[in-house]
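COURSE: Structural Biology Practicum
ASSIGNMENT: Worksheet 4, Part C
STUDENT ID: 0417
INSTRUCTIONS: Below are two proteins. For each, the amino acid sequence is given first, followed by its structure token string. Answer the questions at the end about the second protein only.

PROTEIN I
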Amino acid sequence: MKTQFDPDRHHRRSIRLKGYDYTQPGAYFITICTRDRVCLFGEVIDGEMRLNPLGEIVRQCWWAIPEHFSHVVLDEFVVMPNHVHGIIVIMATHDVGATHASPLRVRPRGPQRQSIASIVGSIKSAAAKRINEYRGTPGAPVWQRNYYEHVVRDDQPLNHIREYIATNPLRWHLDRENPLQTGPDDLWEKMFCRRKNS
């Protein structure tokens, strides 16, 4: 069962815009799309997302994130026909007995451990493996290569994003990811496009 993020209880730090380290505590709005935006996970019927078995796999993998990343709290989340939206909150940790790495050691390639990139990579990998096992298509690509992330800096945007995620199935006909989109999604424009231009 999900635990909603409470900024007072979880002591979220303010986010720096320049040189931001994506292992830092804070809330992140994440969108992950399927490869070529193919609708794999079910369908929206009467404003309600109805998951098929592949969508259920994605849902299970998402809610398992804290089992693998103990410093993460999950907030609002939805699986849509060809993408997922969710809020991942990285919590402050105070590791006891940590040691500094030798400056002569070469950092391994790939995303930094415990970062948003490593968390998203983990869910994409786990879900793709299970989906391909289910379909009998080992190694077939499921997700697009990248993902969208937005650092959430305070409570008002956090609440708007929660609303956007929770009501996403109701607005599927306007969704930017819907191949049959019938018009612009005013809520998306209000939250992201207009604020960037102001």
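PROTEIN II
(use this one for the questions)
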Amino acid sequence: MVAHGLTWGDAGNLSFRSGDDLYVTASGSRLGDLTQDDIVSVPLQAAPVGSGPARRPSKELPLHRAVYSSRPDAAAVLHGAPFHATLVACSDMTVPDDLFVETMHYLERVASVPYHHPGSQDLGTAVGQAARSSEVLLLENHGVVVFGESLSEALQGLQVLELACRMAITARTANLTLRRLPPETVTDFRERAAYRPRRSRPS
């Protein structure tokens, strides 16, 4: 994530699920310098008061738990602050999902989550609700959350999100009109192109 400019400094955190265990980056970890000691194992559900690992997990643990609770298919969650996607999250712009193949697949549904303070249960609740219908979440005036069935899938989705936002912002700055694909072409691609299996989501 750091190498691709998808977060910076000590901003951002990540997690992955293995069985009933959740592995999440520790509080204060810098994603560009992670070691094994920076990964904390915690229960998937909230643990009783007084129990837990010696090192504190990321304060955004409620957000991560909420995604896994809402989406049994999720195996990895990335929470970052890529420049262009965060800029969009701080604006009224929408993310284009009809520019090229990867946007049609990975950005089929992008949800916007109203601002709540980082680490709060309110944010976790809002993220959990949005995650039921989308794997790409813009956290208003905060950052982004992308999850997938693997770390590599989540990273790919995050990269596509940042590229699409960068293209949209650059085009607006350059007064360039992007040639967007017609809605019927986008629908046909998602239903018939077999680029990747279409995601199934809770009803």
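ANSWER KEY EXCERPT:
Q1: The longest helix spans residues 151-173.
Q2: The first strand starts at residue 13 and ends at 18.
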